[in-house]
Amino acid sequence: MLSSDEKTSIQARCRCHPTLPPGAARTMRVNHEYQRGGALAYLAAYDVHQARVFSHCSPKTGIAPFITLVEQVMTQEPYASAKRVFWIVDNGSSHRGQAAIDRLAKRFPNAVMIHTVHASWLNQVEIFFSIVQRKVVTPNDFTSLDQVEDRLTAFEQRYNATARPFRWKFTPADLEDLLARIERHEQKEPNLQQPPDCDHQPAAPALAA
């Protein structure tokens, strides 16, 4: 099972003065003036059971960069020979709707695409992107896009060597319990679902004396 998405517009901002690390009684100091060095997209697929990341950088997002990521994963084991490989994605333009499902299945018959419509926060790659934002991108002080890509690659290698799968605190049993409580509440309070009928007539306005 692979969670996949794109982290868009990672900018290379060359600060006019070096960033100063935090010290005794002093927070990190980041200069607000910078020169823009462009931006890139970071496409990643996260194996939720192995805590392993596959990725590549691209000047922009789109169908072609996403398919490149898919091929990067699906042409190696154990994914190439697996009976089914689930790809969890949001409804972004790179992998939107039935057309994306058909395109993936045609290229790799054992790949199954699942969309998290209105629930992209459930996609575990977003947790990985949050880690990347805090540990790699911030405070965004890079001299070039090559430096951005090198930093991302180095972090990914270290992450794959040390990471463990994320463990949700909200378990399937918790979800079943929540759904059961919602169902009991709806059965107990049917009036909450529909407004009460209002068949009385409004009071006649008072006549002036």
Q: How does the SSE layout of this entry go?
A:
Layout: E1 2-15, E2 34-47, E3 52-58, H1 63-74, E4 85-89, H2 97-107, E5 111-115, H3 125-137, H4 145-162, H5 172-188
Parallel strand pairs: 1-4, 4-5
Antiparallel strand pairs: 1-2, 2-3
Provide a descriptive summary of the structure in words.
- By secondary structure, this protein is of the alpha/beta class.
- 34% of the residues lie in helices and 22% in strands.
- The protein is built from five helices and five strands.
- It has helices spanning 63-74, 97-107, 125-137, 145-162, 172-188; strands at 2-15, 34-47, 52-58, 85-89, 111-115.
- A hairpin with a 4-residue loop joins strand 2 (34-47) and strand 3.
- The protein is globular.
What portion of residues belong to β-strands? 15-25%
Q: Largest sheet, if any?
A: 5 strands, mixed
Q: Alpha-carbon distance between the termini?
A: 79 Å
Order of helices and strands: EEEHEHEHHH
Radius of gyration, rounded?
A: 25 Å
- Average pLDDT, all residues: 88
Low-confidence regions? none
SS-derived structural category:
alpha/beta
Silhouette: globular
Number of strands: 5
State the helical fraction. Answer: 25-40%
Strand order of the main beta sheet, please? Answer: 3-2-1-4-5
Total count of helical runs of at least 4 residues: 5
